[in-house]
Amino acid sequence: MRWIDIILPETETNQEFDTLMAEAVYLTSDLLEMQNKHGLDSPKIIDQMAEVGRRLFKAICSHDEKAFTPGENTDITQTPQIGVPEHDELLGFHIVTDGQWADMPWTWLHNGLEFVMEKHPVCTATATSKLPETAAQRPWMSRWVRADFLVDDAGDSDLYNTLDQLRPQNLAQPEILFVPGHTDEQIRRLIQREAEAIEGALGRSQLGQNLANLDLPKKSITPSQLKAQSINYQAIHFAGPTSQPAAAADTEGQFWMNRLIDEVNAPEDMELEEAMGVEAEVIGIDPITSLLDSVSEKYDREGLSENRVGSSGIARMGGESIAPTDTNSPKAAPPWLLDDGPVEPESIGATGGMPPLVFSNSYRALPELGKRFTSAGASTFIGPMVPLFSRPARIFAGYLYSNLADGWCSGAAVWKASQHIGQELGKEHPAWLSYGVRGYGTLALQYL
Q: Closest by alpha carbon to 430, among 198, 107, 24?
């Protein structure tokens, strides 16, 4: 596919741009309050996303009116073709910006008729889509360059026929480390289902062989182990709470959840349904894990913790609102929480072990943690931009890895996953616009 760079102006150089961006910032923060009021999956959220997207689109066009209608002289980054027309013929937009605009939801770009994501992948980074000079390249980048020159004996250059050259038999398979976030042991079963979805997606590659293996540790990973072992992996997938910030201790919430799970042993199905407000069994799905999904979503919706942080980031104690801490601070965002403590992106990067690809399926991961991970050494970071429930988050992860397993680059894989989940849940459900990419949208599993 092709990537076109759209380089945004610095602040205070274009008054119209700055005004429109200020409006977009306000509307984005208002969206979190809307989710808190109407629900994370309310159709109203899509309308607000479109409002934000129109401001972002107008802001870019005020700087460059032809940004989305590139001409012949436009500088384009061409990624190695994989032999799938839908992928290879794609045109993507690579938003280049730093500072306060980097964490804006650029995948919500809306031209007044439709979201840009309906036809084009979108990613954002602090540098252009062009790979750095050879001396600064990471190993995956060298293989990316090499892939463009591979041809088999019959003259075919698609990924299926050249993969054996890109991946010699004595080359180890890339490993993706699955890291379950801090949570109760019983609730961890939900996270395990996310691991199963990813593992299944990786095993169904149309290329005839896996492009990566998922490493699911049998025991909990400690922060020190993660920092020490991350250098052995080419990607990390973190699975944590996606509907609200992770909390190191929420005994009341865990007690409520455990009480509901215990009621699975109720003697009568009808009594169970009446007590929990959910159906005890869904056809084709294990009844216990189905119940856990329903209970988890109900817990997401109601919280049932007196002192909790809502989706707006405002702590509510006894009905009184307390302003959040300064989110502009690089340390203000919640890090990954493991069973025995937090993990900061900077601590992984300090050891030189930050993998090229990081997918954090956690609360507002892209604006909260994306910049920190790419600054610490990750080439590509994928995560949700807004709070969403665990089920659509898990579905999205499955679709994403299915596309990556077929050789799609990360930017195109996110775009395709958005299409799939939009078809499954409906375009009025915000899940299809909830994820984004920071860094290189050109990275793909076959180069790791």
A: 107
- 419 located within any domain: no
Domain count, the chain: 1
Q: In this structure, are strands 308-309 and 235-239 parallel, antiparallel, or unpaired? A: unpaired
Q: Which residues pair with 342 in a beta bridge?
A: 337
Rounded CA separation 286/435 (Å): 28
Contact in structure between 222 and 341 (CB atoms under 8 Å) = yes
How many CB atoms are located within 10 Å of the residue 265 CB? 7
Q: Say if 292 falls within a structural domain.
A: yes
Our measurement of the distance from residue 32's CA atom to the centroid of its chain's CA atoms, rounded to an integer in Å, reads 18
Cα 239 to the center of its chain, rounded Å: 10
Residue 357, domain member (yes or no): no
**This model's pTM is above 0.90:** no
For residue 288, being part of any structural domain is answered with: yes
- Dump pLDDT digits (tens) for 83-110: 999 999 999 999 999 877 989 999 999 9
Instruction: Give CA separation, 157 vs 10, 153, 154, 166, in Å.
Output: 41, 10, 9, 11
Range of the domain at 283: 251-304
Burial profile 196-233: b = 16 or more Cβ within 10 angstroms, e = fewer = ebbbebbeebebeebbbebbbeeeebebeebbeebeeb
Q: How many residues are listed for the chain in this entry?
A: 448
